[in-house]
Amino acid sequence: MPEVQVEDRSGFEIDIRRAAGMAAALLVRLGYTGGELGVTYVSIEEMEDLNIQYMGRKGATDVLSFPLDAAALEVEAGFLAEIEAEEHLLIASMLSGASSDEVPLLLGDVVICPEVAGTQAHSQGNTAEQELCLLLIHGVLHIVGYDHESDEGEMEKLQAQLFKEMCPTQ
């Protein structure tokens, strides 16, 4: 079962247990039986900082994904150095004799801004809770390798299907 760590630094009262369960269920639905994923809910100010730092874009965005597949990332050298450090740690663990069962597959991190989600929910025809659910799906799909900017609608089609399955209307 995938392991999901959720942290709420947003100032909103996010149900982190529910978010962790949903992210784990989503990963299982996508074929993952293991691995570790981080999900962090942040304030609009923190999202603005992350967006400029890692994407080079001003302003807050709704969701950012940081897959631990360095080839898929277009990030600054500082972030790549963090990834390389994690890879070195992973390799060191493997060389020290730890079995593959003891070394978790690090999938990456999803960062979501509930304030932006709440602002855009209505225009998307969603409740704020549905929008947060949609953003979690979107972020996780990027973590596992989907890219709506380069595929031919595959990610959006799967995202819509998962949204219907996992983000109930109230």
Concise structural overview:
This protein is of the alpha/beta class and 170 residues long. It contains six helices and four strands, in the order βαβαβαβααα. It has a four-stranded mixed sheet.
Element layout with pairings:
Layout (H helix, E strand, L loop, with lengths): L2 E7 L6 H14 L6 E7 L1 H12 L7 E5 L9 H19 L10 E7 L1 H11 L3 H16 L10 H13 L4
Parallel strand pairs: 1-2, 2-4
Antiparallel strand pairs: 3-4
Helix pairs in contact: 1-5, 4-5, 5-6
- Provide the residue-averaged pLDDT: 86
Low-confidence stretches: 70-77
Distance between the termini: 28 Å
Radius of gyration: 16 Å
Characterize the overall form. Answer: globular
Beta content comes to: 15-25%
What is the helical fraction, as a range of percent?
40-55%
Strand order of the largest sheet: 1-2-4-3
Could you list some keywords that capture this structure?
single chain; four-stranded mixed sheet; 170 residues; alpha/beta
Describe this structure in words.
This protein is α/β, with parallel strands linked by helices and 170 residues long. The protein is built from 6 helices and 4 strands, in the order βαβαβαβααα. The chain has helices spanning 16-29, 44-55, 77-95, 114-124, 128-143, 154-166, and strands at 3-9, 36-42, 63-67, 106-112. The chain has a 4-stranded mixed beta sheet. The longest helix is centred in the middle third of the chain and has 19 residues, at 77-95. The protein is globular. The protein starts with a strand and ends with a helix. The relative contact order is 0.17. The model is unreliable at 70-77 (pLDDT under 50).
